[in-house]
Amino acid sequence: MLTNLNNAHTGDLVEVSGMIHNVRVTKWGGFIILRKSRGLLQTVVGDQSQFFNEQGEPVAMSDLCREMAVTITGKVNEATIKDPAAFYNTLEIAVDKVTILSRPSTTEVVDMNSLKFGDEETLLRYKFDNRQVTLRNPRDMAILKVQSTIAKAFADYLTEEGFTQIFTPKIVSEGAEGGANVFKMDYFGKQVYLAQSPQFYKQIGVGVYERVFEIAPAYRAEKHATSRHLNEYISLDVEMGFIKGQEDVMNLEAGLLRSIIERVGTVCDHELKLLNATLPVLPANVPMWKLSEVHEILFNEHLTEDHRGEDDLAPEEERAICKYAAEKFGSDFVFVTHFPSQHRAFYAMDDPKDPSLTLSFDLLMRGLEITSGGQRIHREEEYREKMTRRGMNPDNFRFYLDTFKNGMPPHGGFAIGLERITACFLNIANVKEASMFPRDINRVAP
Ligand code: AMO
After folding, report:
1. How far is the CA of 417 from the centre of ligand 1 (A)?
2. Which run of H or E residues covers position 71?
3. What angle in degrees, to the nearest 10, is found between the helix axes of 398-405 and 199-209?
4. For atom 16 of ligand 1, which residue has the closest CA?
5. Would you say the C-alpha torsion 389, 395, 396, 401 has a positive or negative sign?
6. Residue 32: which H helix or E strand, with range?
7. Residue 113 has pLDDT above 80, yes or no
8. Beta strand segments in 305-408, E
9. Which of these, 314, 330, 415, lies nearest to 368 by C-alpha position?
10. Fewer Cβ in 10 A, N or C end of the chain?
11. Burial grade of 4 (CB within 10 A; 0-12, 13-18, 19 or more)
12. From the CB of residue 203, how many other CB atoms can be counted at a distance below 10 Å?
């Protein structure tokens, strides 16, 4: 079985298997468009082509239909194929023989080739309602291929930089991020939670391996339906020890992103073209402003309403500062630092120069926050003080605090939302399209 078909096979007789994406009958024969792992392959039927069913009996071309699994043997010819969904766009196969391996049990398979509806919302609902099959359409395949490439590049870069991949529990006794958006669940009569992030565990991992990363689901009970929020998303988490300041963490993230951009550019040329996407630009010096400076810039440049004094970025500010950074500094990324302490999770280290602020940052990309991160507190006493100040009971976090009691290096880290970074890479407006099976307030199936 041929798995890496390419133009070096021109003139060869090959055997390829795939799903029938489409059948087009012409006066002289027709085309069977096969769907392979990266996209479509055109095969051409002529008057010598033969067709066989699962029992090996001869059948007619008209017996073929979409979503049949088939094996085709035939000769590889050079060709120019214009369909952007064609992964194999410089070759085609002249069919000798088609053998049906398996067929759908309905004659009305879900339409995923020509999804066209009146409005975007209806289209998305149809796609998500039938996601198990609509995922087979080349556009959705391409989005998730890019996503898979981002995750692989993330793991490869960090492994190369001396990080160890860890796997931490998602059933937890306390939420790490605070706030109301934590899912509660019954655990043999005891109330437990679904992890909002692996924050505690990745910090614990630093005490063990110095540098750790994790790729795993995170859960947020977001009650609002937005284009940026999922109730289950994949978190790309990083935590590193022995940092001198949060700049070390931001520099690592910039290097990581550079490597991801390079990898997507090399591996996903076909997908980027199909999705009409351009790779993001990450300059050597990524623009970086304090939160208070962002409010000032946007107000002074008349780019947004007056948000000065607010303790977070408004969505309109995220969009506006990214547009500003792209136009003025040619960057698709912006670091925003020094968020107010009361707005950040308790583990964030307060700025010794101004304890009302934290040594923390967000990274925005093309108008959306894709990362939060920063330096963490590493002394038990500081944790206890801050928790008490916030009305938290340190006893509920005993195992976590015990980590610091037993000694921890200065450390920091960050997390990237995989769906968000994928959507930003591809200029996709709704992050749900970058999730294989999105979970939102109205959807837990398929
Ligand atoms: P934070 O809560 O900001 O930080 O989350 C980090 C990143 O995760 C993504 N994200 C989401 N993506 C989709 N749907 C959601 N509901 C959602 N919530 C978050 C975003 C966000 O930037 N522990 C810290 C990270 C750290 O400091 O290391 C944390 O979880 O891309």
Report:
1. 6
2. strand 69-78
3. 30
4. 229
5. positive
6. strand 29-36
7. no
8. 333-337, 350-351, 354-358, 360-365, 368-375
9. 314
10. N
11. exposed
12. 24
Would you say the CB of residue 89 lies under 6 angstroms from ligand 1?
no
Q: Which residue has the tokens 């010819």?
A: 77
CB atoms within 10 A of CB 76: 22
Residue 302 — pLDDT band, cuts 50, 70, 90?
very high
- Tell me, using a 6 A CB cutoff, whether residue 412 lines ligand 1: no
Based on C-alpha coordinates, what's the Rg of the chain?
A: 26
Handedness of CA 263, 269, 271, 277 (dihedral sign): positive
Ligand 1 nearest atom to the CA of residue 176, by list position: 23
Out of 372, 416, 424, give the residue to mutate to test ligand 1, the one with the largest number of ligand atoms within 8 Å of its CB: 372
228 alpha carbon to ligand 1 midpoint, in Å?
11
Q: Residue 369: CB within 6 Å of ligand 1?
A: yes
Quote the distance between the C-alpha of residue 12 and its chain's center. 39
Taking CA atoms only, the protein residue closest to ligand 1 atom 3 is: 372
Residues of the chain with pLDDT > 70: what percent?
A: 98
Q: What angle do CA 78, 84, 89 make, to 5 degrees?
A: 10
Q: What is the pLDDT of residue 115?
A: 66
Residue scoring higher pLDDT (111 or 362): 362
How would DSSP label each residue in 289-349?
Answer: EEHHHHHHHHHHTTSSS--TT-SS--HHHHHHHHHHHHHHH--SEEEEE--BGGGS-TTBP
How far apart are the C-alpha atoms of 425 and 433, rounded to whole Å?
A: 13
Give residue 346's pLDDT band: very low, low, confident or very high (50, 70, 90): very high
Query: What pairing do the DSSP bridges indicate for beta strands 58-59 and 50-52?
Result: antiparallel
**Pair of tokens at residue 6:** 């390419």
Distance CA 260, CA 156 (A): 9
How high is the pLDDT of residue 383? 98
What gap in Å lies between CA 229 and CA 368, rounded to an integer? 11
